[in-house]
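Standup notes, protein team

Yesterday: finished cleaning the Bradyrhizobium barranii set.
Today: UDP-2,4-diacetamido-2,4, 6-trideoxy-beta-L-altropyranose hydrolase structure.
Blockers: none.

Input for UDP-2,4-diacetamido-2,4, 6-trideoxy-beta-L-altropyranose hydrolase:
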Amino acid sequence: MNNMQQAIFRVDASVNMGMGHLTRCLTLANALAESGTRSCFLMRSHAAGLASFVESHGHSVRLLLDPRYARDSDTTDAGSNYERWLPTTWQHDAEQTSQAMDGSGGAGWLIVDHYALDGRWEKACRREGVRILAIDDLADRPHDCDVLLDQNLGRSMLTRYRDKVPETCRQLLGPRYALLRPEFVEQRRLSANRSGRICRILICYGGSDPTNETAKAVQAVASVAIPSMKVDVVIGLSNPHENSIVRLCSKLSLGKVHRGADDVAELMRRADLSIGAGGVMSWERCCLGLPAIVVDIAENQVGALTALADAGAVQYLGSAASVTSETLGDAILALLDNPVRIKALGEAAFALVDGEGSSRVCAELGFRGRAARASVS
């Protein structure tokens, strides 16, 4: 097999990590498949429950065995806020990854999307003929990669990776490269100009939502007390609060819970307002010009949400921990009375993301099949 025709992804997901990293890697792997490229996902064994989900997309999975016992504190790398995402040392993870790569039949690209891994890991995993793509949005650590992808909007994007990547590294920066599933492009083509009136609200906080921000948003919508308001509530398969959310939604006359929904793009197109958090969903909402009231549920979302607010594309209320259902309710009421503001939010968002990021990234990696039809100029 031609090495160029296989890509190896190193990524994890969990309730604490969320599903965003895995989602964007799956999106890229699906796009690469259109050019005949196979993808193998290397995931730690604590993510075994997601293996069938990845395999259902036509990709293979190899699980990296977690240590039997927690690693000793003496081996902990000081200064990393995300080290707990890795149940072993980066050295051991790199050794396991290298062994899996050597036994995979060869690959043209190693693609890593993991906050607990950095340039040391990438250097240890280097192989002749294998190029490395690092997907990041923190800019808090060095990388030893050939291409770096940061799909977020932020201040000083052109300089934030200065001295953190090799001089020869190709940097793909900004929402122009946002990795979105093709259904978002399809729904974008069907989108009509929004009037600014709010008749349908979408509540979605991603795949896990460990602090149950969804319930807070449902309570806020209920407090507005508009019987004719349609409300779609999307929760992930790993959401631990399903029963309580269903009970809350039963009090909404036109509320509906969607568990593990595969039609999120259509739900976003049909909605007039969204309530949610940052991450991949930010770019999905932008692609469809969906006005949004947002909070951050992790520190790494603050920069992008602040930039989106500065661009007039979202109403950003701050950290979820400090935002109450009453605060959300007040924000909804204010927008109900201001269709001009709602329309402006949607238009600003729509202008930021065209949904062709996956195609552009494929082209930058040297894959120019159907997936790489978009211009990279």
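Follow-up from PR in the comments: The longest helix spans residues 20-33.
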